[in-house]
User: Fold these one by one.
Assistant:
Number 1:
Amino acid sequence: MKRRVFCTLATAGSAALALGSRPARAATTVSLWHIFGYSTEPGLINIARFNQTRTDVQIDGKSVPFGQLSQQLVKAVATGDVPDLITIDNPTVASFAGQGVLEEVGARVAASKGLAKSRFFPGSWATTILQGKQFAVPGEVNTLMFYVNQDMLRAGGVDPSKPPQTWAELTAVAAKLADPAKGKYGIGVSAIQTEEGTFQWLPFLQQSGAGLKTLSSPDGVAALQLWVDWVQKGYASHDILVKRQSEMTDAWLAGNSAMSLSGPWELPRILRDVKFNWTVIPMPVREGKNIHATALGGYVWAIPKGAKNVDAAFQVIEYMLAPEQAARSFAGGRLPAVQDVQPPADLPRGEVYAGFESQLQYARPRGPSPEWPRISEALQRAIQQAITGQQPAQQALATAEATIAPLLQRYPIEGM
Amino acid sequence: MSQPLRHTLDATPWRMSRDRFLDSSTIWMLLIGAAALFLLLLVGYPIAYNLVMSVQEVTLGNLPSFSRPWVGLQNYRQLLADPLFLLVAKNTLVFTVANVAVQFVLGLGLALYFQLSFPASSFLRGLVLVGWMLPPLVIGAVWKWLLGSDSGFVNYALQGLGLISGKIYWLADPSLSLLAVTIANIWFGVPFNMILLAAGLAGIPADIYEAAALDGAGPVRRFIWITMPLLRPTIYALLSLTTVYTMRAFDLIYTMTHGGPLDSSNIFPVWSYRMSFELFDFGGGAAIATAMFALVLVVALAYVRSVNAERPM
């Protein structure tokens, strides 16, 4: 408590210094653990603006790397010293809510003028609901597209203005551009044994027409065999088994991979570092099926149970999702979870942001299910077994299907 | 009882009582008590906490309190029944034995080498230590880059030397990934081995070597009959410390492979972390940690015994 008062005074004090005239007085301090890292990130700008405009509520922010959010929240729960508000990865909401760690916010959302369900992308809204109750509010979202090195395409005799639109075309382009002996690859995805691997492969499963209950069906097998062939024929590097998405983007930026599957979070550094002509293309669809599907990532705003300032924390959520604040998301390589804001006109490469924005209509949530970590683990294992050649795709997926079936029995997932 | 000299020189009553206090048995009981309390709170509590968790069903919901459902040895039984258990146990064993053995041999070699006096020998010895000063996360990131299949330096060098024609998938091949993380961890640990052994070597009196040389013992026999026996206490201490350090390796593997592909480089600490913080199975994670603690304790006890045995009677 003492620490909080001190922080409040410190925050208020520095704000007063910055503005010169503001009185150092703040009634309530909302402790917020967030994923906003670098100083110019829109999330941090929003926090600073909030603290400047409000005198009754102040935000005391603490930055936590995205990959450590769950761990930090678990530690906070264990010690009983939880923040008032936290940004968490959307597939983890169900796990945390299912174990009673998050405050239910359904009634507050229903009573809020600004947070009408119709404003949000349906997929991101779904990640906040567990068994009919709402435990979070979508914050920012992201999705996957292929980043394309147009110079590499041109050099390989592929017309960059006619990008691949089907799996077969995608594979053909990848085959044409790959030269594994020189360390050049046609395509890059992440098949790592973490949630990132699941995140990247799941859209292919959904495009194939199969689902978690029909993993080992011919459709499901086709989705996995696609990746297996890429690696075994040398179109993609073996290292996709241990590389994270950011490391795959490194390879793309270095000109070692012509097309790389990743999200808008990479845009700030790509715009800064890229040394060739590039664009993004939507994930191609499977021929004969034409099912559009892509991944849905991003964070949600959640209030941990035991938070001391629930009312004020909810006001912060409302503030962050108001159109003016939400519109700032783009500049940080994130997309607002609300549909009623457009990328600012002066954004560099605005068409790329618009491209990502347009794909959100196909973005499907992972889950929600409190058992998602185990479902995901089974998928990761199947993906890696097939790519390493330890098991045929069909056999690997049959094992995963058997592991996942009882988990789906306990917590059915709509549409999966 | 004769008064110590200093008391007669400066015999104010306050000083006398202070000195009597410092010489008394009360003081060492106080000192031991403070140390024991410190250990109990900062070492004993987490161990007990972990032990309790490992026999309970722990969820996020009941994490803050101690009143959780008791499940006896169920977490341990589940662990043993887990298809991953044997693989992770084997990985941990191979990783630990390889690290301890190779780090020791290389460390001893380097320590002996730097004992020779040649220009800049002490400077170079200091340079070797740099590896030990880097955080394991950084070392993991650097080695992940070095061992990359496509643009990694190791493959590039091996190809340049004509030793391999194709690529070696150091990290992506499940049959090599454990070797890859072991190599990186050995690189990390050798400087520590070297410096402890160098200190041990420096403690061996030079006149023993001289006497042996006069008696006609060559360098090999001097090494076998003088260096090794006199270095024994250092070696015991070092081997146990390296074992303990290796068995709790986490950051480096987490950065390089995350335990993959297919858990081929997964060892107990990484598994425990993933169980607790990725699957939210805290009881399972605690059970692994407790089992690890028991193993490390055995090593530590063996070390303490060996130290006691070495002590002159």
Number 2:
Amino acid sequence: MTRGALLTPEQAWQLAQGWYKEKLKPEWRRPTVEEAEALLASIGLTGAFWNLRA
Amino acid sequence: MGSDIEALGFDVRLYVFNEAAATGHVPQPLQIARALRRSEAEVRAALQILAEGKTLIMAPNGGDIWAASPFCAVPSGFRVHAAGKRYWGTCAWDAMGIAAALGSDAQITAPCGDCGSGMTLEVRQGRLERSEGIIHFAVPAHHWWDNIGFT
């Protein structure tokens, strides 16, 4: 397996909350690329590995 | 027909995710069709649109839902106990996502990707109160949907 990227459990929890906290709500919509980038950056997930744009 | 199916997609989404949250089981097309009083073909068409929008994931080579993320439709090693029910996530991120989506205290057990032993995480009152280990992402973010099952 390639090395990939490592997160602390707290980072993963923050990511899970940001991504899924609203998922059951009727008004939920998939985050835009910009919103997803902002979420990743807010928990320190930056750099080439976390780049969402091909 | 197209706009009707898109409108049905909203009802299908609400039913699938609310049912998964309420029971721990992701409903499949026949159950959804019966619950919404629509044909199975219509429900499958709506599910296809939801899958194309990455709202949920269909099983490869089949018409069933594999994951209404964060809820996995099939048993996995990523188990969540919350609100007196058992859920499965497709990965550690999704397992935590179940606790986040439910807004509930939860105990999560996950297999270590290195040694296979169990890791336990606990969420209480919106906080990660117990954790161990690290979370590994093998696939770069812009390739996650090349093969979401592998990711």
